[in-house]
Every structure is written in C-alpha cells, then in structure tokens.
C-alpha cells in the first residue's frame, strides 16, 4: 500500500515532520535553480554581465556551494563550526560586503559642481549696488 504525501513516516518523530517537509521543498527549489544556472555555460552567462555583476554571481555561487557543504558535514555528524568551511564562508561574506559597498557607492548621488556653486553663490549675501554707491559718496564728502 502506497503512503500518501500527507501521511507521516513513522521512521522519525512526528514533531519534525513539518521541518523535514520544508527542508524537502527548499532542496527542490535549490535543485531547480541549479538546473537553470547549469543550462547556460558560465562563459555565456558572464559575457552578458558587467564585472561587478560577474563578481556577485561568483560570490553567490561560492557561498551556496560552501553552505551546501556545511549542511553535508552536519548530516555526516561533523561539526561544521570546527571545519575550515567556516573560515571560507566568512571570507566569502567579507567579499560580499565589499561588493555591496562598491554597489552602494555607485548608487550614491554624484555632486553636481555647477549646481552646487550656483546654490552657494545665490545663498551668499551681496550688498545692493545703490547702498554701496551711497556709502562711497559719503566717504568723498
């Protein structure tokens, strides 16, 4: 007799059924994304991207693979926190932060020097010509 998808397997505690179902769904999503990425050659994919976007793709790929290895280690009873994969993930995360800083700098507004000088010039007080000429005439008397 075939078990339905909703039926709980008795090989594991019922309390973790929802977690395992969510994990299975996530694995399916990762598999679909990997199929999509692998359907196009890496060179073909990178040719369509600027260098910053290429760096993002490489970093996300490296982070994903190392994260999957982290999970694999955990399933094998190895503590990933004591494995070199932890340092690798931290290193990749640092590079991701650098790319984010570069992206944020590119998005930051650029200073329009012409507009800034006009703004400052118009904001400064200048004496009116009539008052200046009256003061000059008083000084001559």
Automatic annotation (TrEMBL):
Main location: cytoplasm
Keyword Disulfide bond among record annotations: no
Pfam families registered for this protein in UniProt: Sas10_Utp3
Signal peptide positions (record): none
Subcellular localization, as worded in the UniProt entry: Cytoplasm; Nucleus, Nucleolus
Entry keyword set: Cytoplasm, DNA-binding, Nucleus, RNA-binding, rRNA processing
Domain of life, source organism: Eukaryota
Keyword presence, Nucleus: yes
Record-linked InterPro entries: Exosome-assoc_fac/DNA_repair, Sas10/Utp3/C1D
Family indicated by similarity: Belongs to the C1D family.
Complexes and interactors: Monomer and homodimer.
Function, as annotated: Plays a role in the recruitment of the exosome to pre-rRNA to mediate the 3'-5' end processing of the 5.8S rRNA.
Protein name: Nuclear nucleic acid-binding protein C1D
Gene from which this protein is expressed: C1D
